[in-house]
Design a protein that fits this description.
The chain is α/β, with parallel strands linked by helices. It is built from 7 helices and 7 strands. It starts with a helix and ends with a helix.
Length: 171
C-alpha cells in the first residue's frame, strides 16, 4: 500500500503534463474570443471625457452604426493603432472611444498629443464597461450596428487591413 502512495505524485505529474500537451500545445494562440459578436451591446451609461455628462452607448448606436474602441493613454499598442483610427475618422466612420482604466487628465493629454479620432469619448475608470464587453486588454475594437448588435471584434492594434474588415462590417 505504501508503494502505491509513493507513485501518486508521479501519476499526478504525468496527468498534468498530458493536460498541458493536449490543451496548451495544441491550442491556436491566434484564435481570438468572439463571445460578444452577434449579441446585443451591453446597455451601459458612461460619463463623457469632456464634462462628465452621462451618455448611454445604445442611444449613440441608435444614431447609426459605429466603431467602439477601448484604449488607454498608458497603452503602447494604442499609440500604434491611433493613425488608423484617425484615418477612419477621415473616412467619416463614427468612432466612439472608451478610455479604459485611465485618468481623464491622462486621456485628454493623449488625445491632444495624438489627435482625437472620436465623435464621442467616454470614461471607463474602473474597467466595468470593459468587463461587460468582454475586453481582455487594450486596444480592442468592436463594430456595433444601429440595432445595437455587435457585428465584429478586433483584439490588438488595428492595421489598415483590420480597419477595412471593420468598415465592411459596418455596412
Amino acid at each position: 500500500m505504501n508503494r502505491g502512495l509513493a507513485f501518486l505524485p508521479l501519476i499526478a505529474l504525468v496527468a498534468l503534463g498530458g493536460l498541458f500537451y493536449f490543451y496548451a500545445l495544441r491550442r491556436d494562440p491566434q484564435v481570438q474570443p468572439q463571445a460578444m459578436v452577434g449579441k446585443p451591446m451591453p446597455d451601459l451609461t458612461l460619463p463623457t471625457l469632456r464634462g462628465g455628462q452621462p451618455v448611454r452607448l445604445r442611444a449613440i448606436a441608435a444614431e447609426g452604426p459605429m466603431v467602439v474602441n477601448f484604449f488607454a493613454s498608458w497603452c503602447a499598442p494604442c499609440e500604434i493603432e491611433h493613425p488608423v483610427l484617425m484615418g477612419l475618422k477621415g473616412r467619416g466612420v463614427r468612432v466612439i472611444g472608451v478610455a479604459y482604466k485611465d485618468a481623464p487628465s491622462n486621456t485628454e493629454a493623449f488625445l491632444t498629443r495624438m489627435g482625437d479620432p472620436f465623435v464621442n469619448a467616454v470614461v471607463d475608470r474602473d474597467g466595468a464597461a470593459g468587463v461587460e464587453f468582454g475586453v481582455t486588454g487594450v486596444p480592442e475594437t468592436y463594430v456595433v450596428g444601429r440595432d445595437g448588435q455587435i457585428r465584429a471584434k478586433h483584439t490588438g492594434p488595428l492595421g489598415d487591413a483590420d480597419a477595412e474588415r471593420l468598415v465592411k462590417a459596418l455596412r
